[in-house]
C-alpha cells in the first residue's frame, strides 16, 4: 500500500518501524504545511464499509485527469461506485478498497500539490468546523450547512474538508488524522486543551503508547503525537 501511494503521488517511501510505511515528498521537513504526509499501518481488520475519510487528488487539465486515471488503474486502482452518479470527478479505490477521488481541474486546487484535500463525511459540517478550527492552527475558508473548508494559515498544501452526508459512523475509521504539537508545546497540555473543546478519549486497544488517541465530536478517531 505504501508503494502504491508513493507511485500515485510521486513521493518517497521510508519506515519508522515494523508494520509502518511512511510516504512523504522527497526532502520534506516537518512541520512544513506544503504537504500532509501519509503513514500506512498494518492492521488485522479488513475493510467492511465505505470509508468516512478519503483523499481527493488534484489535476490541472482534462488531459491530466484522464492520464492520471489511466496511470492509477495501471498501478492497481479500480473504479468504485459510492452512489456518486453523473459527476465530473472519478471515484477509484486503492488495492485494499479505500475510496479516493480524482477531481476534474479546479482553480482552488491549482497549488495544493497532488493531494487536493482530505475529505471527512459528517452530519454537521458547522460543528465539525468549529471543533477542528480550534483543534488546528488552520484557517476556516468556508462553512455552510453542507460543507466546511479549512487550510493551513500559510495558504499552502491541501485542504481539510467536511461534507454533510447521510448515515453515521459505525466502525473504526481506517483513515484518520494525526496531530503533532510543535516542538516547544507540552503534550499533556495539548491533550487537555483538545478535551476541553470537545474531544473524547478512545480505547482502540493501543495499550501503553507515547501518543494519545482521541475522537472528535462525531466519533472520528485521531492521534495526538509527541511534539516534534
Description:
The chain is of the alpha+beta class. The protein folds into two domains: 47-171, 2,3-Dihydroxybiphenyl 1,2-Dioxygenase, domain 1; 176-228, 2,3-Dihydroxybiphenyl 1,2-Dioxygenase, domain 1. It contains four helices and 15 strands. An eight-stranded mixed beta sheet has the order 5-6-7-4-8-11-10-9, covered by helices on one side. It has a four-stranded mixed beta sheet with strand order 12-15-14-13, covered by helices on one side. The protein has a three-stranded antiparallel beta sheet with strand order 1-2-3, covered by helices on one side. β6 and β7 (99-102) form a beta hairpin. The longest helix has 14 residues, at 62-75. The protein is globular and about 50 Å long. The relative contact order is 0.14. The model has no long low-confidence stretch (mean pLDDT 96).
Q: Tell me which CATH architecture of the largest domain applies here.
A: Roll
- Measured between the Cα atoms of the first and last residue, the distance is 26 Å
What sort of overall outline do the alpha carbons produce when their principal axes are compared?
globular
CATH class descriptor name of the largest domain: Alpha Beta
| Neighbour order of strands in the largest sheet | 5-6-7-4-8-11-10-9
Describe the sheet with the most strands. 8 strands, mixed
> Which fold name fills CATH's third level, the topology of the largest domain?
2,3-Dihydroxybiphenyl 1,2-Dioxygenase, domain 1
Helix share of residues? 10-25%
Secondary-structure element string:
HEEEEHEEEEHEEEEHEEE
Strand fraction equals 25-35%
Instruction: Catalogue the unreliable spans.
Output: none
Q: Please count the helical segments.
A: 4
CATH superfamily of the largest domain: 2,3-Dihydroxybiphenyl 1,2-Dioxygenase, domain 1
Number of domains: 2
Task: Give me the Rg, rounded.
Answer: 17 Å
What's the total number of strands?
A: 15
Output mean pLDDT. 96
Structural category is alpha+beta
Protein name: VOC domain-containing protein
Domain VOC: 114-227
Organism: Streptosporangium roseum (strain ATCC 12428 / DSM 43021 / JCM 3005 / KCTC 9067 / NCIMB 10171 / NRRL 2505 / NI 9100)
InterPro entries: Glyas_Bleomycin-R_OHBP_Dase, Glyoxalase_6, VOC_core
Amino acid at each position: 500500500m505504501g508503494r502504491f501511494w508513493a507511485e500515485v503521488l510521486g513521493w518517497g517511501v521510508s519506515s519508522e518501524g515494523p508494520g509502518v510505511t511512511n510516504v512523504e515528498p522527497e526532502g520534506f521537513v516537518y512541520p512544513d504545511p506544503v504537504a500532509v504526509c501519509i503513514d500506512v499501518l498494518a492492521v488485522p481488520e479488513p475493510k467492511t464499509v465505505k470509508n468516512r475519510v478519503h483523499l481527493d487528488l488534484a489535476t490541472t487539465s482534462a488531459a491530466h485527469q484522464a492520464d492520471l486515471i489511466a496511470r492509477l488503474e495501471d498501478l492497481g486502482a479500480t473504479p468504485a461506485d459510492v452512489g456518486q452518479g453523473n459527476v465530473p470527478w472519478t471515484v477509484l479505490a486503492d488495492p485494499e478498497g479505500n475510496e479516493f477521488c480524482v477531481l476534474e481541474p479546479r482553480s482552488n486546487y491549482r497549488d495544493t500539490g497532488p493531494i487536493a484535500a482530505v475529505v471527512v463525511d459528517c452530519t454537521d459540517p458547522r460543528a465539525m468546523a468549529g471543533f477542528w478550527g480550534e483543534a488546528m492552527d488552520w484557517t476556516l475558508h468556508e462553512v455552510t450547512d453542507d460543507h466546511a473548508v479549512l487550510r493551513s494559515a500559510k495558504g499552502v498544501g491541501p485542504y481539510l474538508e467536511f461534507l454533510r452526508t447521510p448515515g453515521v459512523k459505525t466502525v473504526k475509521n481506517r483513515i484518520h488524522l494525526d496531530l503533532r504539537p510543535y516542538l516547544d508545546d507540552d503534550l499533556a497540555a495539548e491533550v487537555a486543551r483538545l478535551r476541553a473543546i470537545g474531544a473524547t478519549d478512545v480505547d482502540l486497544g493501543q495499550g501503553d503508547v507515547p501518543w494519545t488517541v482521541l475522537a472528535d465530536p462525531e466519533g472520528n478517531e485521531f492521534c495526538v503525537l509527541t511534539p516534534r
